[in-house]
Each structure stands twice: as C-alpha cells, then as structure tokens.
C-alpha cells in the first residue's frame, strides 16, 4: 500500500523511496534498461546522438489537454526530433514538494507513459527528490532526451536561406491560453485544450520524403514571435509573416483580445515552425495535413536577405516589426 | 550589465533570458557544441553510451567544500563513471527562484565549470526556468551525463560475487556532516569540508589496470549502509563489513555522536564503494592511494553467499544487521 501523500522520506534514499521508485518503475516505466535500477543506463547508439534537456514547472500541473507529465515527455521529444534524429531514450528527474497527492503523481506518470509510448521512446534512467512543503510548488520534472542521428542532413537554426518559406504546423497559442484559463483571478470559460503532443513521428514522415527542410523548431516559451526572432538571428536573415495566413483558433483570439495578449507570443507545445526550400513547400504541407497534429498547417511567411528582423504584414497591408519581448506575458507556462 | 537578482522575466524566453543565457554560456560553458544554442546537441558517440540524470536540491546551496553547482557536476559525472564509461557530455537544467542573487548564480556556474574542466566533460545543452518567489528554494539543478562505454567489461550492482572484497575509497560521511553543520538550529563548529569531487579520472586509472572490478557505486543519499543494501539485493549476496576498518574522520564521528546519527547512513559525494575480486584488492588499493581522492581508501568488508543482508562486525566482536532506514536522517543533502 502506498501512502496518499508524498512525504519527505520519499526522497531520502531509504525504504520508502525504494518502494515508491519500484512501484512507479514497475507500473509505468518498465523496460529492460531502466529495470536494472543502476544509477546509469547503457544505451546502444550510432555514431552521432542528439541530446536535449528541459525542466518543466508549469502551473497548474493539470490543464485542459494535458499535464506536466505529458508536457515533459512531448517537450523534450520534440526538441530532439527537430534535430532530425530518431528519438530513442529519455531520462526523468522529479523534484516533488512534500504533500503532493500520490494520485496526482500516478496520474502524471501515467501521462508520461502514454506520451512516451506514442512517441516510441523509453525512459532509461531517473531520479526523484522530495523537498519540504513550501520549497517547491507541487512537482517539477526534468527530462533529457537522446536521439540517434543517422543522416548527414543539416538541420538547424543556422541553415535558413533567403527565399525559404515558413510553415506553421497548426493553430498558434493553444497551449498558453489553455493553461492561462485556469489561473487564479484569470478564469474564463473555454473548451480549448493544450496542443501538447509528440511530433517526432510526423517529423520522420516529413524528413523521409523532403530534402529541403532547413530548420524545424517548436515555438514554446515566447511563442512564434520569439522563435522566429531566434532563427532570424542564427541565420542572419529577415523573416516576413502574413497576419491573414496565421491559423488562430477563434477561442484563442477571443481570450487574447480579452486579456490583452498577442497570440504570436503565446506558447505552443505541439506545433512546429518549418523553414523549407519553396520547391518543397507543397510536399511538406501535404505530409503535415495528413497527420492529426498538422491538419491546420499553413504557409505563413518567407525569408529574405536583410537585417535579422521579423516583421508582419497586417490585415491592413501595413508592416510592423515583431520584436522579442523583454519579459514574459505568461510565466510558468511550461 | 546583468541585474543583481533573478527576476521571473529571466525564465520567460524573452530578451532578458537570452541575455542571461548568452552571458552564462560565454562566461562559463562555452564550447562548440553548446554555442550553437539549438535546443539539441549532436554528440559523437561510439556504439554504447552511458546516461545518468540527477536533480540537486541541497540546502543550503553553499556549504564547506563545495556548492550545488560542484555537486551537480560531480554527482552525475560519478554516476556515469561507475558504469565504466568515459564521461563526455553533460546537460544542465536550472530551476531558479525569483530573487536569487546573480552573484550566487555566477559563483555556482563557476563551480560547475571548474568541476567540469577537472572531469574533462563539456556541457552540451541546457535549460533555465525561473519560478516566482516561494515556488522553489533558491536554485535546483538537474544534470544528465553521457559517457561512452568502449569495453565490454561488465560492471554493475548485479555482478557482485561471493568472495569479493569491499573497498571504500576514503572517509565516510564527510559531505552530509559538512552540509548539516550549516543547518539552522543545528550549527556546530567544524573545519570539516564536503568530499564532493569528480572521481572519473581515478576510476579510469583503476579500470586501466584491473579486470576484476565487479561494481562501483558512490554512496550518496542514504550513505554506505543504503548503497551496500542495494547491491546485496541486486546480486543476491550477503555483505559483511568490519567496524574497525571503516575510515571515519574524527570530526564526523564527533558530530554524529552529538546529533545521534550513524555515519554509515550519512551521504558522501566523493567516495566510491568498490567490489573487487580478492586477487586484485591490493592493486586497486594501490591505485586509489595514489589519487588525492583515494588516499584514505580501505578494505572494509567482504561478500558471501546467503540472504541479501548487510551486517557489521562491531568493535566488540558482535554482529549486527545494517538495514535500510525507512525515512531520512538528513533531508536535502544533495
């Protein structure tokens, strides 16, 4: 019988932690590599591996369409997948506040398992720490992902060319607004769900048939605007997007209008920005639209020579610069 | 000019975060893989890689002989190194409480760099989250380590044989007592320092000349007693240790007597338990004693057939079982 709440003792290295870890491993994460319960995992790998790490601190840790566990798996899977590598292994580190409900932890671990299964990745090693009440906020999760990069296909923020097209794989801002809808003092009615999803299978399908993809990136914290600015800087190119082509869920637009937010800066957790040779744009869009995670994909802009600035052509035909925000619209969204 | 304290905005994905990350990367972690600042790192690797992850929540985050940054690098380096792999890459995830002093963050990053340099590892990718005041406690750090395992030398908790000797690489309990000495309400005078250290180079020297090492493990949370119990379970063997052979710093013994603690359960962060074929014990001890981190190494016990129980032969000649504690003597020690 497991206790109903996490106690400090669950992080102590003693029997209670062993029992907790064993139960969690057996119930959710069992696989031959992890089950050895050494402090390390030996993973087969090719010549080049791709690695990414992310800590997740989203508040609240359950939200429409997902939870911190789903987010922790999908977020890191996506970060590895955009390298063009096949995502294979995950590590997981929990930091848990004393008093977390055991049923919440189980639910979170169940979400992790479900997303890991969908993505085809296994969790090969992990760590659990518990801190006293007030020293954390419920649960934080770090995941590190490892993928194997077989091809020499050069993909990354530094490979974008003038002339490339910019595609987004679906509606923007869904995750940020879904989480926001639960925040104290900001509650509003919505049926909106987070877009949180593992995108590695969709990415593999694209890479299997397209050779002109320069860069893929998931526009999470800081949203599409921030990610586009990062890439403009990395490749020293100008990027123009077209307001009328941006796919935005009406509920997201409505909430943004209400809250004074710009959906371009709102976080996504299941979307990709894709920079592609214009000759392959149609092919990429066709693959995306066949996936449940890409059905609203759209061509939203293009790359040109010039200062590394992102601008938007508005509904009115005017241009305005889309800069990076100094601070945050929405803290603890991932 | 960087601000003096961490603000929520430093975790937002906006300019302030970019500036912070760029400064930190340039000043402390610069290397060709990390400098690409993609969300992923491409790492050359052989056929088998070793991976380990750990989150560090030690309180206070500065302590005699180290800090949370040194700990985060050494702890994970050691966990990978005991696999017999050559430790190559680290990922780092920071969770920072709003209000952390920038000088503290710099000092912690400086420690990370120093330890990483000593260990010969590079930090290939990272992540920074900031949470509001009260939602964390200063700073938490996750590190994931990746090593390359070239030989087929089987090392792990499951490979211990009856007849093997048990070696500890130095005095036990130093880390736990050094951290404890600073805790509110428990302050006592000591010149004791944490043993926190990267052990991978010492391990490589052992493996280069010994072929009879079955298992190495760093006895961190739960101390020597807990680690021995884990290994007894994994290999289904009995382990006996000899009280009179345990190297214990008199200051640690004194503090334990004062506080009612047993040094066998106190955390270490720069020590190894080594299980070795008795024919190689002297060779291993000779290598250890030549290293600054192994100069107090000692043969402390042996393995036999029987129930997977750890027992100690006391100074008085009696035997007592050394069980795993149910909870924790010392929370947040690593």
List the helices and strands and how they pair.
Two copies of one chain form a homodimer.
Chain A: H1 15-29, H2 32-35, E1 41-44, E2 48-56, E3 62-63, E4 66-67, H3 68-81, E5 86-97, H4 102-119, E6 122-131, E7 139-148, E8 165-168, H5 174-180, H6 200-209, E9 213-217, H7 223-235, E10 238-242, H8 250-259, E11 273-276, H9 281-290, E12 298-304, E13 310-313, E14 319-321
Parallel strand pairs in A: 5-6, 10-13
Antiparallel strand pairs in A: 2-7, 3-4, 5-7, 8-11, 8-12, 9-11, 10-12, 13-14
Q: What is the tally of beta strands of chain A?
A: 14
Strand proportion of chain A, as a percent range, falls in 15-25%
**Name of the CATH homologous superfamily of the largest domain in chain A:** PurM-like C-terminal domain
Largest sheet of chain A: 7 strands, mixed
Question: What is the count of distinct domains of chain A?
Answer: 2
What sequence of helices (H) and strands (E) makes up the elements of chain A?
A: HHEEEEHEHEEEHHEHEHEHEEE
Overall structural class of chain A, as computed from helix and strand content, comes to alpha+beta
Helix content class of chain A: 25-40%
Tell me the distance between the termini of chain A: 32 Å
Tally of contiguous helical segments of chain A: 9
Q: So what's the overall shape of chain A?
A: globular
- CATH level-3 fold name of the largest domain in chain A: Phosphoribosyl-aminoimidazole Synthetase, Chain A, domain 2
């Amino acid at each position: 019988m497991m206790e109903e709440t996490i106690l400090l003792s669950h992080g102590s290295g003693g029997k209670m932690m062993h029992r907790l870890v064993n139960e969690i491993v057996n119930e959710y994460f069992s696989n031959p590599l992890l089950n050895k319960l050494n402090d390390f995992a030996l993973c087969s790998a090719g010549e080049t591996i791709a690695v990414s790490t992310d800590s997740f601190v989203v508040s609240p840790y359950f939200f429409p369409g997902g939870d911190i566990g789903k987010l922790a798996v999908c977020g890191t899977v996506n970060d590895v997948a955009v390298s063009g590598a096949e995502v294979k292994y995950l590590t997981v580190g929990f930091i848990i506040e004393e008093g977390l409900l055991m049923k919440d932890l189980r639910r979170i671990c169940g979400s992790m398992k479900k997303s890991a299964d969908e993505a085809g990745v296994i969790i090969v090693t992990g760590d659990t720490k518990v801190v006293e009440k007030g020293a954390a906020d419920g649960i934080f999760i770090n995941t590190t992902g490892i993928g194997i990069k077989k091809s020499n296909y050069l993909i990354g923020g530094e490979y974008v060319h003038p002339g490339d097209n910019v595609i987004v794989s679906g509606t923007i801002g869904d995750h940020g607004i879904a989480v926001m809808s639960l925040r104290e003092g900001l509650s509003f009615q919505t049926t909106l769900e987070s877009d949180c999803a593992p995108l590695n299978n969709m990415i593999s399908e694209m890479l299997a048939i397209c050779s002109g993809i320069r860069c893929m990136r998931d526009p999470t914290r800081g949203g599409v605007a921030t990610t586009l600015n990062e890439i403009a800087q990395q490749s020293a190119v100008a990027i123009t997007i077209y307001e009328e082509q941006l796919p935005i869920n009406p509920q997201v637009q409505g909430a943004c209008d209400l809250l004074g937010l710009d959906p371009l800066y709102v976080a996504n957790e299941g979307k990709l920005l894709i920079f592609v040779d214009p000759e392959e744009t149609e092919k990429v869009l066709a693959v995306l639209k066949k996936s449940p995670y890409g059905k609203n994909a759209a061509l939203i802009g293009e790359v040109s020579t010039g200062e590394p600035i992102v601008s938007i052509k508005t509904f009115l035909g005017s241009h305005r610069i889309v800069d990076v925000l100094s601070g945050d619209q929405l803290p603890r969204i991932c």
